[in-house]
Specification:
Two copies of one chain form a homodimer. Chain A has 106 residues and is an alpha+beta fold. Helix content of chain A is 31%, strand content 42%. Chain A is built from three helices and five strands. A four-stranded antiparallel sheet of chain A has the order 3-4-2-5. In chain A, β3 (45-53) and β4 (58-65) form a beta hairpin. The radius of gyration of chain A is 14 Å and the shape is globular. The interface between A and B is large, with 40 and 40 residues. β5 of chain A pairs antiparallel with β3 of chain B, so a sheet runs across the interface.
Chain lengths: 106, 106
């Protein structure tokens, strides 16, 4: 379970994947496996929450890392690169690096 | 503080706003105010977490509603419509309705 809070010193990555509906479930499973096998063991990993859109056309990964440096370091990890390449073969993606301005309710 | 968990029966809205960097903070404040004044009092509201991208070009609202029906009902709320119109004047947006497939770490 991930938590979103104001004032926590984390980097948030919102990665929106656009995918053919026929490939949505495959991409979801690929991202879950990538997180379970590789990402969660990397320094600075906090959480990854994989979402599937109701219309079948998107997958959203809401991920939290300790810092931008930790996130950038993924790019140099060969195991992570294999997962990224597999995801890129199924979908286009638009990663947004951000911080929480406010979180209301819960 | 919002929580993301697998198997919770919630509708997740990931709304990605594209904005001029000069307007990013204004949009963030507008969304916080809309949530505080209106959204959080509407039936089925669970949480809204407003994020600003590090490059200044995006704002992401990660919101949770009890059901799709509750979320759709916002469209008929005149107060909410005023806030939406103000946001639309500042930015384009791409709302994604989704469900959590998995959440790892935390």
């Amino acid at each position: 379970m991930a938590t979103i809070g104001k004032g926590r010193d984390v980097l948030t990555l919102v990665n929106v994947f656009t995918v053919k509906p026929a490939d949505q479930e495959k991409l979801v499973q690929l991202l879950i496996e990538a997180t379970d096998k590789t990402m969660k063991r990397l320094p600075g990993f906090i959480s990854a929450s994989i979402h599937k859109s109701l219309d079948g056309a998107k997958v959203v990964n809401y991920a939290q890392w300790r810092s931008k440096q930790d996130f950038e370091a993924i790019k140099h990890n060969p195991e992570a690169a294999v997962h990224m390449k597999a995801a890129a073969a199924l979908a286009t993606f638009d990663p947004i690096l951000c911080e929480v301005a406010d979180s209301i309710g819960g």
